[in-house]
Design a protein that fits this description.
Distance between the termini: 46 Å
Strand content: 15-25%
Largest sheet: 6 strands, mixed
Number of helices: 8
Shape: elongated
Strand order of the largest sheet: 6-7-10-8-9-11
Order of helices and strands: EHEEHEHEHEHEHEEHEHE
Number of strands: 11
Radius of gyration: 19 Å
Length: 257
């Protein structure tokens, strides 16, 4: 029996990963849960096309968070989610990427469990793996990139987090994926350079992944940091750097469609 239906007939919550927004990259389980939903609380980046899979009778409520734009506080979202579930509704919380990676699933899981609401996670394709497919690249490479690391580029105040493990992030043998970092990457790059990461480290920015008009910007750690200090892309971005991206950078100009 699924966790979402194992609470004696009362409401339930499912945290669904929408992946990068392409409908054909949704899991079958995600589609099934959307079709069963009474309420769908969705993020802006989850993709409008994915909402077409929702139960046509479901209430669709936008609760997306965007930097610099008004958005519900997490505590308000939790209350909304739990309130619907306590009414006996099957609630879907639809998130871009994977719910368990930089998507505040921890806070929602705690809130649901404290309220005695059954909760299920349906994983989605996370942004780094979708970006690798878009770039036609591997994020790991034998003898070059022995590990993959993911980090958020901004704290709750929008600034670069002060507790980052900068020595790990400056490891030339890793491929590093920086979420939500287009505003803070110049500051991060400065600290990485100070810890010995070469300025020539291959670096790629992937913008608006999963939309009809994704873009990639390629260069080095130094050139990308310099570019982002002057102009920030308007869409959501993932920044990747490391030697495994050398072929991607070598094949493209600095600004590439």
């Amino acid at each position: 029996m699924n966790a979402a239906n194992d609470n004696g007939g009362s409401g339930s919550i499912v945290l669904i990963g929408a992946g990068p927004g392409d409908t054909d990259l949704l899991t079958l389980r995600a589609v099934s849960r959307l079709r069963e939903a009474d309420v769908v609380l969705y993020d802006d980046l989850a993709g409008d096309a994915i909402l077409l899979f929702a139960n046509p009778l479901a209430d669709l409520i936008a609760v997306g968070k965007r930097a610099g734009h008004p958005s519900p506080k997490q505590s308000e979202l939790n209350r909304l989610m739990i309130g619907f579930a306590k009414q006996g509704k099957r609630v879907v919380r639809l998130k871009a990427g994977d719910p368990a990676i930089f998507a505040r699933a921890d806070e929602e899981l705690v809130a649901a469990r404290e309220a005695g609401i059954a909760v299920e996670i349906v994983p989605g394709i996370t942004t780094p793996t979708a970006a690798a497919a878009y770039l036609g690249a591997s994020l790991t490479k034998r003898g070059v990139a022995r590990r993959l690391q993911m980090v958020t580029g901004h704290d709750i105040d929008g600034q670069l987090p002060s507790d980052l493990d900068l020595n790990a992030l400056a490891d030339p043998g890793a491929t590093t994926c920086v979420f939500m970092g287009k505003a803070t990457f110049p500051a991060l790059a400065e600290q990485l350079l100070a810890r010995g990461l070469p300025a020539e480290t291959p670096t790629v920015v992937v913008e608006s992944l999963g939309t009809t008009a994704p873009r990639k910007y390629t260069g080095t750690l130094q050139t990308i940091a310099n570019a982002l200090a002057l102009v920030r892309p308007s869409g959501p971005c993932l920044i990747l750097y490391g030697a495994a991206l050398q072929d991607v950078v070598a094949a493209e100009p600095l600004l590439s469609n």
